[in-house]
Specification:
Length: about 280
């Protein structure tokens, strides 16, 4: 049997050559990179859901430059702390993208003497393909966060970094007492970029949400300034944000003329515990 379960009937999946099959006959392809395609056709809202090849490549290049390294390091520290006493933690990265955070957490847990099992799920096949190449020992699937192809109560820790939040599903796959880390932008995240984009920049709304099945334990702030080196990095960061979908053309043109930008970076890592 594999870690994953059938996204149609929730039965366990077993590997049969280059596919995963369940006892009820549902079959799902395995890519040459090792990831599973577990997004049923009736759950797809386009031919290729999620981020396209170009968007994934631009984000991967941006992340590799280390602009968000302080955030990944904060996540690593928290994951090591939260898995103390758990020698082989099961960690789920929902909305794993190209696996930059997934691989970083895996490396930190391994360095701390753990033997982690990392599972990453994303709706973009282009992102999951990169994640599987980045972390061959991980288990990755193209699937929806709202129907995670994972058994009930299987995970000790779940990460959600800039991805759709499916609190009910997260509560289902986490064991009793397991932890959920949710990254949200702070009030002044990317403030200097917003000053270029908008005539009247606004702070992000900041509040703590309560989710059924979870207790909120607190938030870890991550604050620093990033100096983006060139126009390509500025625009890559812009396209990683919701502003890319709602900024007037005049603001985008002002941003495109920049040859670099120093901007505030701010995140809060909200920590929740699955109710016991």
């Amino acid at each position: 049997m594999t870690l994953f379960r059938c996204p149609i009937c929730a039965s366990p999946l077993a590997r049969r050559e280059n596919a995963l099959r369940c006892p009820k006959g549902h079959s799902f392809d395995l890519a040459s990179e090792g990831y599973a395609y577990l997004l049923p056709p009736d759950k797809k809202h386009s031919k290729a859901p999620g981020d396209d090849r170009e968007m994934v490549a631009a984000r991967a290049a941006f992340l590799e430059k280390g602009y968000y390294l302080p955030l990944r390091e904060a996540l690593q520290r928290l994951c090591v702390h939260l898995t103390e006493g758990c020698p082989a933690p099961m960690v789920v990265d929902s909305g794993c993208g190209e696996g930059w955070y997934t691989a970083g957490v895996h490396a930190a847990l391994a360095a701390a003497g753990r033997e982690p099992c990392m599972a990453g799920v994303d709706i973009s096949k282009f992102a999951v393909r990169r994640a599987a190449k980045r972390l061959p020992e991980g288990r990755f699937a193209v699937a929806s966060a709202y129907r995670l192809p994972l058994p009930d109560g299987c995970a000790d820790l779940l990460l959600n970094v800039f991805s759709p939040l499916a609190a009910e599903e997260f509560a289902r796959v986490l064991r009793s007492g397991g932890h959920f880390l949710y990254v949200v932008p702070s009030a002044r995240h990317l403030w200097q970029m917003k000053e270029v984009l908008y005539d009247r920049p606004y702070e992000n709304p900041v509040k703590v949400e309560q989710y059924p099945g979870f207790d909120f334990l607190g938030a870890t702030p991550v604050r620093y300034t990033a100096a983006l080196e060139d126009s390509a990095d500025v625009m890559a960061l812009f396209r990683m944000t919701p502003y890319a979908w709602k900024t007037p053309r005049a603001g985008v043109e002002r941003l495109e003329r920049l040859t670099g930008l120093a901007t505030e970076i701010g995140f809060d890592i909200h920590l929740y515990r699955r109710k016991i």
